[in-house]
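Morning F.,

Quick status update on the modeling queue. The single chain you submitted on Monday has been processed. Sequence for confirmation:
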Amino acid sequence: MPPCLKFDCMKNLFVILFIFLSGVPLRALAVDGISYLNASGTLQKASGVTMIAADSDITALGDTFTSGWYLVTGSFTHTGTITISGDVNLILADGSDLIVNGTYAGINVSQGNSLMIYALSTDPSTMGSLTAIGGNGGGDVVVGGGSGITPTPGGGAGIGDNCAWGSSCGAITINGGNITAIGGRYVSTLQYIGGAGIGGAWGGTGGTITINDGMITASGNSSNLLGGARGSGAGIGGGYAGAGGNITVNGGTIIANGGVNSSGIGGGSFGAGGGNITINGGNVTANGGTQGGAGIGSGISSATDGGASSGNIIITGTANVTATGANGSMDAGGGAGIGTGGGSGGTLDTIIISTTRSVNVMGGGPGDGYNNQSGANIGYGGGVNTGKEGSVGASATMYTLTATAGAGGAISPVSAQSTKGGRVTFSITPDNGYSISSVTVDGIDQGAISNYTFSDISVKHIIAAIFMSATAIEPTADPSTIVYSQDGDVIVKSDVPIKNVAVFDVSGKNLKTVSSIKAINGFVEISGLPKQQVLIVKVASDRETVVRKLTLEN
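Structure tokens below.
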């Protein structure tokens, strides 16, 4: 731990010790100057922080955290759902360990509310821990009025929504800490259904989930009490029959395990699409839930569910991803590593992979003892058994975008793959001492641009950039001097006498200089040049010196 963080951690402990010795209950005071690491890992201070040192402090708050700041300092277990009301910021002190065994959700973050979790350090061995477990319950549900189904115990998310059919999780942001979230299960006389580890309850979508850092393990409920009847929620995303919502991972180490029939990251089981999933960084392992869930994408689906879409999946930046589809079952074939779960009726949305690190993908195998088939690595899950041999999951058609950069700069990403209709932006960045000379797309010069976007992708593309030394002379304009390329030579035309012509590459290296020129009908031809894509031509005449940038045609 950096020295500054050690100091602030000790300062937090001294504040707590002072309050304790003064005989004032921790929950009775709002404390200023409490340290935490924000989304970018920068040390910040919070004021008006409510101290949570024991289970009694949560009980005294009515099991509800309202808008404001809270600091968990002790190691204890709370039984019952903690409800988030408003915009809540929760700091996990080093060495703290809060376990929540929920009745509905473990920590209920319903639509319109937000929870942001912070740590004080980045060392997994010392940073605070939070474990949130959704409730396990049963009984016949009661159909309600406006909410669709009245919440009953069981089936909530570990961190996310309670149990209201058609509802959505609120906004959850994790900036650090050791976080474990396990979805609950609900068992009635008719079916078994469950919630996501982080995200929706049964019947609920994933809301907005952002992970910036931390050590996170999120699992949908994996119990299979009724021999596979219906299903559960995603590791991160939707609950049973709930879509993934908007999921963004910018960093951290994440293990996401789908519940029965559900995805690791994305949609829950049966007709629940993956939502919008963007992974910009971090180390991510996503495992589809048993019986056909995709690693990243959707859970299983059938024609009667209307099918489930993979969702829009973007893996970019510095993300390091392993995605594994689950083996199939009696309900569906194997899930795709990235794409749809097993079954029938699934569709693919946009899938873009452009990370500078690795993406390891494996589709799930066929159902044991059934005719269901394997899922694709990237694409569709295996087809459902309908009394005849099922179909192998088809692979998605991926179009490759290749980037090349000359000396003096870089293009990011260095390459990309996209399904049809995707949109990928490339950024061109010169090194210190260089500038952008030209950018070509599929061989066509686009000028000295700093970014280029491919939209509605349907074919492969090549983007290339050439950089110029900042010490090279920049092009100037002079209507009396014309420079162009013809048959691999440089042609200069001027209406005034020319003293000399010098040709440089974009790094500023002189390739050829011609002096004592005798113009023929106002034209000077310079041949014998190496095959350079872009040249800088410096022309000195009796009037002035001009510079041109020229693409040499061969």
